[in-house]
Write a structure and sequence with these properties.
- The structure is a homodimer.
- By secondary structure, chain A is mostly beta strands.
- Chain A has one domain: Tachylectin-2, Chain A (5 Propeller), CATH 2.115.10.20.
- The first copy, chain A, is built from two helices and 27 strands.
- In chain A, strands 19, 20, 21, 22, 23 and 27 form a six-stranded antiparallel beta sheet that branches.
- The longest helix of chain A has 6 residues.
- The radius of gyration of chain A is 19 Å and the shape is globular.
- Chains A and B meet through strand 8, strand 13, strand 14, strand 17 and strand 18 of A and strand 8, strand 13, strand 14, strand 17 and strand 18 of B.
Chain lengths: ~350, ~350
């Protein structure tokens, strides 16, 4: 079955060389996984920019946020031949058994009039702050609900990987609402309106020995306190999403139900995009799901990069029946793709 | 430093032989980890009863909840020499890579007039129900708040290990509030009253690669929806609680602050009890903590059993300066111990 999402010919639309480092002495290793929204007639992307110090010969370098260091960033260097250093994943390494990230991410705004050509702001709009974000903030979803934009993003620190939330009306001042889902959790997408009198969120907790990496749903009276968590959908043995799944951005309301785009990875950590349809009034019920990815890593910029074989999305723009899906490719650059919602809905296989 | 908690001479006070199986064909493997409360002049314990089918020669047996099976319990047998079977922990095994528990737990009431001699009800008061509890429910904390008892317990299923909540006024009818903390989470203890206009809970999420097993605190407008999660206290390298920590039952209000008893385990999974003191008005601030356990596995019934080297508590009764701490010993039997709150407070080392 052919993919439903059509790549843009100008991909990648944003590369690391387009993005200035936030701090002297750092390099931009990846610019990826943007949230997407509309504001005053423009398309905004909220980029994840992943940085690290320039490494010297024979060393590996990363950095963490530290209010006592110059510029708030503390570089960390290790000798490559240090036996206490373990580097089996491009994204995470550990020293003396203590894991940490290989890059430090912040969020940065980029603006466009046509949704394809972006001007990137020179400074971060949001950096990690406090003890729960010392390893940075990542992969922000943006959704307008009621009267402001709500931002849900991954907050990483020694204390774990959690979901934090902020809100803004003008992209200049922000209110911070703290951690809404404790570790280990990622991939939080808010529904754009109340359903049955409550706000709803999708999130992706991870089990320890039991449980896996599945999409859950919860509701809230105020968007800040969540309860009644239920497992919405699980990874599927033998499919492209056999190991882990997580929501893209907010579900899209259609006559058929809530259309949820999501990412799925297999045992080899190959990340593709899928879609499922949720009941419009009972969003914890899955009506159907694609059996094949609607986008899978195939282009060079998707198969090879900072972390190979990845297409990952947390931002899209919907206009009528048309959706533009922004995505991170190989965890290194930003690309775009488009489809008709009708075609995505047509690729969903109803549950028996 | 000597232990602060004094064991009762009649320990264990409840053994597996005291407890009838809930279902024909099952045996009680463990009776452990009781919640404790007072009701109409009696002491109530809410026992965790862990059962399994009697295994035939050369087999291992467990069971899961299944509404389509007779009695609601589906037995599962595996041949011990099946190469797909993995049994490296007495509590968890896996088949073909799918983990499950070696026993199925329910909650059962026991009543006493003196707090030491208990009459155990013949039937479970709460069994697992629904898809998020197919592997049972465990380790219930009980706390009276406002106008009823609130029960927080571990709910286990293929979808993971989570915290679920129910409430009751009469121990006959229950209201179920679903999962309040998604996987991987355990050891939830509620504060007995509002602080600064909000309800508060301690819980113990677990990280995947990053984060460990630490005590977090969250607040709620209604006890059912939680937010503003913060990491309260972490495991400590080189101490008895170097690998994982989790709250016992509800914190105890004292003039000095909230006294929290907790369990800590080291890298060898040896579980002891410790104590910490939290600020009375800002309960996310730790004032001090014991450096030595106030109870550690030493008695025969603590060092050897279903899972060796464990003392674990999720229930206590406080009367004036006196505390009776009920605890599971070696994950197999129930014991009691006592101390003066003054002595526990005196063992806490203030933070510098």
């Amino acid at each position: 079955m052919p993919e439903v999402l059509i790549r843009w010919t100008e991909n990648p639309i944003i590369r690391t060389s387009d993005c200035k480092p936030s701090t002297a002495g750092l390099e931009v290793a990846c610019v990826l996984n943007p949230g997407a929204f509309e504001y005053k007639g423009r398309i905004g992307l909220l980029l994840r920019v992943a940085e690290r110090p320039l490494a010297k010969q024979g060393q590996v370098a990363t950095c963490v946020l530290d209010e006592h260091s110059p510029g708030g960033v503390k570089p960390v260097y290790y000798r490559l031949d240090d036996p206490q250093l373990s580097r089996d994943d491009p994204r995470v390494m550990s020293y003396a058994g203590n894991p940490f990230l290989t890059t430090l991410s912040h969020l940065r705004l980029a603006w466009s009039h046509d949704g394809r050509h972006f001007e990137i702001e020179p400074e971060p709009v949001l950096r990690g702050q406090g003890l729960l974000q010392t390893f940075g903030i990542e992969d922000c979803r943006v959704q307008w609900i009621d009267d402001k934009y709500w931002l849900t993003y991954t907050a990483v620190s020694e204390a774990g990987v959690a979901v934090a939330m902020s809100s803004t009306r003008d992209w200049l001042s922000f209110e911070h609402h703290g951690v809404i889902f404790p570790p280990h959790n990622k991939d939080c997408a808010l529904f754009p309106r109340k359903i049955n009198g409550a706000y709803w969120a999708l999130h992706r907790p991870s089990g320890a020995r039991i449980g896996g990496h599945n999409i859950w749903i919860a509701n809230s009276p105020d968007l800040c306190h969540f309860g009644d968590h239920r497992c919405l959908a699980r990874s599927r043995d033998g499919f492209f999403d056999s190991e882990r799944i997580g929501a893209n951005a907010s579900p899209i309301e259609t006559d058929a139900g809530w259309l949820l785009l999501y990412h799925g990875a297999d045992q080899k950590s190959r990340y593709g995009l899928g879609a499922m349809l949720l009941d419009r009034d009972q969003p914890w019920k899955v009506i159907g799901r694609t059996n094949e990815p609607i986008l899978a890593p195939m282009a060079d910029y998707e198969t090879s990069g900072f972390f190979n074989q990845v297409v990952f999305s947390n931002g899209h723009i919907v206009r009528g029946d048309q959706i533009d899906v922004y995505y991170g490719a190989a965890d290194q650059v930003i690309c775009g793709s488009s489809a008709r919602l009708t075609d995505i809905l047509g690729s969903i296989v109803p549950h028996q």
